[in-house]
Amino acid sequence: MNSKIFRTAAAIAVAASFGMASSAMAGDVMLPKKVSWTAYGTTASGYAQSVAIGNAIKKAYGTTLRIIPGKNDVSRMAPLRDKRADFCACGIAAYFGQEGVLLFASKEWGPQDFQVVMTAIGTHNLALATAEDAGINTVADIKGKRVSWVRAGDALNWNVAANLAFAGLSWDDVTKVEVSGFKASVDAIINGQSDAAFMSTITPHAKRLAASPRGIHWPQLMHDDKEGWARMANAHPVNQMHVATSGANISKDAPHQGATYAYPALITNTDKDAGVVYSMVKGVVSQFDNYKGAAPGAAGWSIKNQNMTWALPYHKGAIQYWKEVGIWSDAAQAHNDKLNKRQNMLMAAWKALPGKDSMSKEDLKMKWMAARAMTLKKAGLPLVFN
After folding, report:
1. Per-residue pLDDT for 290 more than 50?
2. Using alpha carbons only, what angle is made at residue 207 by residues 205 and 209, rounded to the nearest 5 degrees?
3. The Cα angle at residue 23 between residues 25 and 298, in degrees rounded to 5
4. Judgement on whether residues 253 and 159 belong to the same structural domain of the protein
5. What is the largest CA-CA distance in the chain?
6. What is the pTM of this model?
7. Quick one: 132 and 248 in the same domain?
8. Which of residues 217, 236, 257 is at a domain's end?
9. Is residue 4 predicted with pLDDT exceeding 80?
């Protein structure tokens, strides 16, 4: 029996065992008649990309991809946690979920068994933007300057810390300017209260700053600075080197060497059926030409943008497809094995933590982070979050 027939026969058997005998079929892409995934809110590019992919999947395979918009990280990932959604087109909060940190260091969450299926990378970077008149050329020059710190903005503040780490700096080396939200972080620069904030190079707020009297500057994270990138990797494993060609004062003629990370990243649970995951990846890749121009950033789902050594482990169904197309390597497998080990250790440590249900929110977070640190240190693994 050749490999294609074997895969198809095996997929049919799996489909039947999961009540999917009426699944949509096209070659060896087999999906249930209905698949659900959560995404960003309806005004976000991630939602538009998800809808575009869903339309292509429906046309090619007859499968209805139900897109469930979520206004925040919890509303996007809770359906995945509770097995009410098959996938999540998430941001880096999925990584926080795996690690059981920040908002996930709570009774309702703890470390999650999230695994990545595939990722999207656009033409922009995610970076520190500074006022052009602030005398900042490199990230090191931010020392002693004012930096926007967003209340309840864990992800934004963590990203700032990662960029500072590139230059061997931390929040202790700058003056925090506390603001109420992301827009306010940029307003603070425009109004002369801050000198830097974290943002996408293509956000409209970057264009606002560029058009203001203060102007905009993007300190570069030069890709040949091995020590800087090693520091950033320890502080922020989700980042990867990237040359931006779009954004405020950025173009193909004036590119920006910096960092980015997957947005969105397609995530599922470890126990999700491997046949469904395999078919979803193959379907999304196969239909790329039919949706790449249908939504802003959709071209970022290209197979050439896939990162096989990202911060979350890959699902076995996805690995099967990536092996077939020749981009899964021994190095990727070794990296994945380490990530699976880390994920399993964190989940076991959470399960073993006594008295979780009776602790206050503050006590639970403190004791869990201490237990987490002890577990990772004993295994010789980086803490990432202190």
Report:
1. yes
2. 70
3. 65
4. yes
5. 70
6. 0.84
7. yes
8. 257
9. no
Q: Which domain holds residue 309?
A: 3-121+263-343
- For residue 135, being part of any structural domain is answered with yes
Residue 58's Cβ-count burial label (10 Å; 0-12, 13-18, 19+) is middle
Pair 154, 192 in one domain? yes
One domain for residues 157 and 268: no
Contact 185, 150 (CB under 8 A): yes
* Chain-centroid distance, C-alpha 57: 23
Query: In the 8-state DSSP scheme, what is residue 96?
Result: H
Pair (149, 242) in one structural domain: yes
Q: What is the signed CA dihedral for 125, 129, 133, 139, rounded to 10 degrees?
A: -90
386 is a domain residue:
no
| Per-residue confidence (pLDDT) for residue 297, from 0 to 100 | 87
List, for residues 101-126, the tens digit of each pLDDT value.
Answer: 998 999 999 999 999 999 999 899 99
For residue 145, the 8-state DSSP code is S
Res. 91: pLDDT tops 60: yes
Q: Is residue 174 part of a domain?
A: yes
At 201-240, the pLDDT tens digits run: 988 899 999 999 999 999 999 999 999 999 999 888 999 9
Listed in sequence order, the residues at least 6 apart from 84 whose beta carbon sits closer than 8 Å to its beta carbon are 36
Report the pLDDT value the prediction gives residue 154, as an integer from 0 to 100. 81
User: Domain count of the chain?
Assistant: 2
For position 17, what pLDDT does the model report? 38
Q: Give the end of a domain, one of 238, 257, 276.
A: 257
List, for residues 135-154, the tens digit of each pLDDT value. Answer: 999 999 999 999 999 987 88
Among 220, 224, 240, which residue's Cα sits nearest to residue 232? 240
pLDDT digits (tens, 9 = 90+) for 35-60: 999 998 887 889 999 999 999 999 99
Tell me, what CATH number does 301's domain have?
A: 3.40.190.10
| Rounded Cα gap, residues 68 and 160, in angstroms | 30
User: In whole angstroms, what is the distance from residue 383 CA to residue 69 CA?
Assistant: 32
Same domain, 333 and 212: no
Could you tell me which of 381, 322, 336, 373 has the C-alpha nearest to residue 105?
A: 373
The reply to whether 137 falls in a domain is yes
